[in-house]
Amino acid sequence: MKALSGPAALAVPEIERESDEVRLLARNPIGEQRVAEDIGRCWLDDFDLEPLLQPMHARGHRQAAGRKRHVAGRRQRGWRRHRELDEAQLLHGGEYSGAVFALTFDDGPGPSTAELLDVLRDFGVRATFFLLGRNVEEAPWCGDPRRARSIVERAGREGHVLGNHTYSHLRPDRWRELAADLRRGEAVLRSLRPSPIPFRLPYGIQRVEHGFPLGTIGEQMDPRVAVIASMGIAHQHWTSDFDDWTLGASDGPALAAKMTAHVEQCAAAGIDAVIDLHDSGTGSSFGYERPGTVAGVRLFLKEAQGRGWNSFTVP
Ligand SMILES: [Zn+2]
Description:
Order of helices and strands: HHHHHEHEHHEHHEHEHE
Radius of gyration: 22 Å
Strand content: 5-15%
Number of domains: 1
Number of strands: 6
Mean pLDDT: 77
Bound molecules: zinc ion
Low-confidence stretches: 1-94
CATH architecture: Alpha-Beta Barrel
Number of helices: 12
């Protein structure tokens, strides 16, 4: 379930990249000299850099810099952050100092969901659950749709965000069926929470060999990106997943260590970690139980608590 990466995914329009470079260079003494040389060996103070320093990208940063995010305390819920952060700092990293993470769980509900909710409650952390409509409505993992629904209702009551992960988790190459399956999952979610309903693509964004034949969205780009664009729906991705659906309970410490290292790496890069885990599945070869995930989350949250890390909920 790896995210799309590589040159195709990271390509930035040439003009935007150059402008950013000028902006970054102008921020330090060596860079100032280089910029000054570039513009005719005059002092920066004598030169109005504003038009130079106002590319599309930077304009967004400037607006963001003046707009502090509201950040909630641990007991507050919803779409708000848990600390006061400046978005411009987040994007450039220089003065960013806090390790901040969000937990997200896909494919639920399942037999491990209730235990996971206990762990989250014990640590006072709220997460986002991207649910499969089938695992609520038909509940093949327990044969009791009423039980499935009551677990999801409990998650909602305890302040977790409930999102849509489609009804039946179709593969990326079945993109022609995505719109209907997405709406079907959304209908289940609508009976559980008011709109808006956040959405996450099954498998995230993938490379697909025979991509989207109807337009130009990039070579091997996941054709489902075009489908959700046509529906006006955003996909909530992650900064890392951990193949946790393959793990047993004894793998908990290794999973927690990987999660901790990832949050540290993100903080070093000046971005918040969005952790992708799984509290259930589609009943494939790994079944529906996720003991490794529950154990790993418990250990990770203990570690995060000890380090004073804060959490937030996506989106
Ligand atoms: Zn999934």
